Amino acid sequence: MGLTEPKVVSGPSGYILEDVPHLSDYIPDLPTYHNPLQDNPAYSVVKQYFVHVDDTVPQKVVVHKDSPRGTHFRRAGPRQKVYFESDEVQAAIVTCGGLCPGLNTVIRELVCGLHHMYGVTRVLGIEGGYKGFYSRNTIALTPSSVNGIHKRGGTILGTSRGGHDTNKIVDSIQDRGINQVYIIGGDGTQKGASVIFEEVRRRGLKCSVVGIPKTIDNDIPIIDKSFGFDTAVEEAQRAINAAHVEAESVENGIGVVKLMGRDSGFIAMYATLASRDVDCCLIPESPFYLEGPGGLYEYIEERLKENGHMVIVIAEGAGQELLSASMQSDKKKDASGNKVLLDVGLWISQNIKDYFAREKTLAITLKYIDPTYMIRAVPSNASDNVYCTLLAQSAVHGAMAGYTGYTSGLVNGRQTYIPFYRITERRNNVVITDRMWARLLSSTNQPSFIDVEVSNEDENGKNPLDQLADGHCLEDTLVDENGSISTAIAC
């Protein structure tokens, strides 16, 4: 099955619109209908409530006076004409992958948005992730049944990894008469949503397939941030504070906190910056070493002699390459295809203990805290609740307007519709030549653990640090040692 050709519209002065698919692209002569919001008293006071057809949002905000206009995405929001009548809509909502604060809020706002804004009364909840489509596990969702779920952690629909059988899923969509599918999940889930869209399109079904990006690690590209991230950083403060209290209460105390971050260290970085009690932050993007001058052991010894205690924050994906070959689990993967990681927090804690026991330079007391599942399971905070509402309502507006094959996301502070292929093309990573990482190093006073001469030039001979010298926030593409491409906004 071939992939849909990207819809790219070019304009003057280097303007590029990476548009999203529309039902009318493959179903001719679709009728349009009056948008019920025009008669909704709640929106009667809003001037120019409907989004103009030409409204777009730039991917990059800070440019030079001679820069081209650059890449844009279609702005999210309600349209004057819709492609579904309220009583014909049969919507389905599914949550996939790991837990994340805000899942229930998104479910609630999808149901309430469909009902209160567009008069949609038939909404199904697919239980247990993708496999719920073909194992016939569904529940009816109404505004009254989801009224208070945003105050609870987890997802009322349940979730799972894997279980993606495209034909079975689309067969179920077709058999049940579902014509709007809202899929909440991370990059793997969004890839699955893209395949579902392609099959729906191939069969010529009038069905909008919409993604809502969910990843507590904040590793989905293009969007400003993912929902649940603010809550995770806030909740991580509790663990860091506990580690700090334990460490400073004893002589030569060390507190080690492991936070989420399989491939991207955003939670560890932002939690460290917010806390100001952390002496060392270790993330997957920044390799470190233990022994020798400038190594972690030497730094720990220096900090203990200076302050009498220290706190180390480590992301779960950091330091995996340091684990011995006999312990490494490269070939083991979970149902989503992610490599199964070993507990680097326990490993590094034991290694620190062994080092000081062997060297006999200092008698240390080390406490290890892993708050991972406590953080994932909490309800979202106020900031994330608002964000979840915007994501859900934007997704609903787009589906009703006939758009499909897109993810609803925040870009430069505006809600947009982003084509699936842009969301799934790569992961968002911390760029260690970015100002934000420099701020962290300044905050903790830790060594960078990298050779500055090596890091100053990428594969193309460019100096990523040059982008920081002119005081602008610039987008830069970096290629790491494995050939992975990452784009970052350096501010």
UniProtKB/TrEMBL annotation:
Allosterically activated by AMP. This is ATP-dependent 6-phosphofructokinase. Catalyzes the phosphorylation of D-fructose 6-phosphate to fructose 1,6-bisphosphate by ATP, the first committing step of glycolysis. The keyword Hydrolase does not apply. Pathway: Carbohydrate degradation; glycolysis; D-glyceraldehyde 3-phosphate and glycerone phosphate from D-glucose: step 3/4. It catalyses: beta-D-fructose 6-phosphate + ATP = beta-D-fructose 1,6-bisphosphate + ADP + H(+). Substrate binds at T215, I216, D217, M260, G261, R262, E316, Y373, M374, I375, R376. GO terms for molecular function: 6-phosphofructokinase activity; ATP binding; metal ion binding. Belongs to the phosphofructokinase type A (PFKA) family. PPi-dependent PFK group II subfamily. Atypical ATP-dependent clade 'X' sub-subfamily. ATP binds at G98, R161, G162, G186, D187, G188, T189. The active site is at D217. Signal peptide: none annotated. Residues 91-397 form the Phosphofructokinase domain. It holds the Pfam family PFK. The keyword Zinc does not apply. One of its GO terms (biological process) is fructose 6-phosphate metabolic process. InterPro entries: ATP_PFK (IPR022953), PFKA (IPR050929), Phosphofructokinase_dom (IPR000023), PKF_sf (IPR035966), PyroP-dep_PFK_TP0108 (IPR012004). The record marks G188 as: Important for substrate specificity. Mg(2+) binds at D187. Homotetramer. Keywords: Allosteric enzyme, ATP-binding, Cytoplasm, Glycolysis, Kinase, Magnesium, Metal-binding, Nucleotide-binding, Transferase. It is found in: Cytoplasm. It is an enzyme of class 2 (transferase). GO terms for cellular component: cytosol. Its EC number is 2.7.1.11. Its cofactor is Mg(2+).
